[in-house]
Design a protein that fits this description.
By secondary structure, the protein is of the alpha/beta class. The protein is built from 14 helices and 15 strands. Helix content is about 40%, strand content about 20%. Strand 1, helix 1 and strand 2 form a beta-alpha-beta unit. The longest helix is centred in the C-terminal third of the chain and has 24 residues.
């Protein structure tokens, strides 16, 4: 059996994981080389591969002492290696300085040397022989396709994917009909006013409510015994609700009632479902979900991903906003998306903002691009040709065209 070696980079764990998924065979040992001394960083790998501790080896270099001194790196590595062991070494990850030292030491042990290119889903196998005429590099396509659960666990994130509720509750035709209303600006003023009131006062409710009670802002009735039970505060009336439902051609699941998920749909959830269906058609992702919550274990704060999908080991996160009231609000959305990518999801994640806000002077586009976010404003969303190009771009990013 062989030993698979990775230079561990906690900021970008995919290279090591895909290398192992490509070449690991039962009985192989794993060796991680790291500038971090915390062995617990290996836990996601051990869990995902279900490996016992005796098959995992860990060599750490103190950043302030060893990791920048070539001679110390070489001596320490040589003292831990065995001439009788077959080493397969992935040189992707960590600092270039450390990679050079690892290459030098393992070459003396006749190791097989590899470089994982996560963006291209390729692994280059090379003897790194500089002798003229000895170009013997070979390229392997990474066959493995990871799930979103694997991606999140590799990045040390908890999630609620296993709880369900991450697929649309309404048909593609329903979402398309609402989109067409916004696209053609067919909603009367009273309908827009009703949308805002519904969003402010009823979004997030946990109970089905009579349309009549929402329209006139009535609270809950007295109890069956006739006693004056404590009532919740009377909610704001939404007099334009019937106009809104009629304009959108929306037919409630239960006559004269709105379910909680229907209120969420009407007040913006429809756009997330529309984006879900659009990406499903244009990109054919391996896995796609809406409303996924992620968090660091032990943290009380979590983040919700409006639409998230994975294809060819590349994660895409799409923030969906029907409208953005001001440039300041847009900047906050961009900063949040950028921070989420940098602090949680890593460089193999690509972030987008889909919105029905216009961007006439490309100012919003420039702000988003500066933070590494791709903006799709209303002019793109309403154009089938431009949306097809967005889908093609996504497929190029993950290097899969089908």
């Amino acid at each position: 059996m062989k030993t698979l070696v990775n230079i561990f980079d906690p900021e970008e764990p995919l290279a090591a994981y895909l290398f192992l998924k490509q070449y690991y065979e039962e009985g192989d040992r794993l060796l991680f080389i790291s500038t971090r001394e915390d062995r617990r960083l290996m836990a996601p790998y051990a869990a995902l591969f279900q490996l016992p501790d005796e098959q995992l080896e860990f060599i750490a270099f103190k950043r302030d002492e060893d990791s920048y001194i070539y001679e110390r790196i070489s001596r320490k590595l040589q003292s831990r290696l065995s001439p009788q062991t077959e080493y397969w070494v992935n040189l992707a990850g960590g600092t270039r300085y450390l990679a050079l030292a690892v290459q030098h030491v393992f070459s003396a042990f006749d190791a097989r040397l590899f470089y994982v290119q996560t963006r291209e889903n390729l692994i280059v196998r090379s003897p790194f022989d500089t002798t003229a005429g000895q170009e013997r590099d070979t390229v392997d396509t990474i066959r493995y396709r990871m799930s979103m659960v694997e991606y999140f666990r590799l990045h040390g994130l908890g999630h609620d994917l296993n709880k369900g509720g991450h697929r649309p509750r309404h048909s593609e035709e329903d979402a398309q009909r609402v989109f067409d209303c916004f696209k053609a600006r067919r909603l009367p003023y009273r309908a827009f006013e009703a949308l805002e009131l519904l969003r402010l006062h009823y979004r997030g409710t946990r109970h089905a409510l009579p349309i009549h009670d929402i329209t006139f802002g009535k609270g809950r009735p007295f109890t069956a015994e006739g006693t004056a039970a404590k009532r919740p505060p009377v909610r704001k009336a939404v007099p334009g609700l019937p106009v809104l439902l009629n304009a959108l051609g929306f037919v409630p699941q239960v006559p004269d009632m709105l379910q909680p998920h229907e209120i969420d749909f009407l007040t913006g959830g429809w756009f997330e479902e529309y984006v879900y269906y659009t990406l499903l058609r244009l990109v054919s992702p391996q896995q796609i979900a809406i409303g996924v919550r992620i968090a660091r274990p032990g943290s009380q704060h979590n983040n919700e991903l409006d639409v998230v999908f994975i294809k060819a080991n590349t994660l895409f996160v799409v923030e969906c906003k029907t409208g953005v009231a001001s440039d300041h609000m847009f900047n906050e959305i961009v900063y949040k998306a950028s921070a989420l990518k940098e602090s949680f999801l890593g460089p193999s994640c690509h972030s987008y903002i889909f919105t029905l806000k216009q961007d006439y002077d490309h100012k919003l586009h420039d702000v988003a691009a500066m933070m590494g976010i791709t903006l799709c404003p209303k002019s793109t969303m309403v154009s089938p040709e431009l949306m097809s190009k967005v889908g093609e771009q996504m497929c190029r990013i993950c290097h899969e065209s089908d």
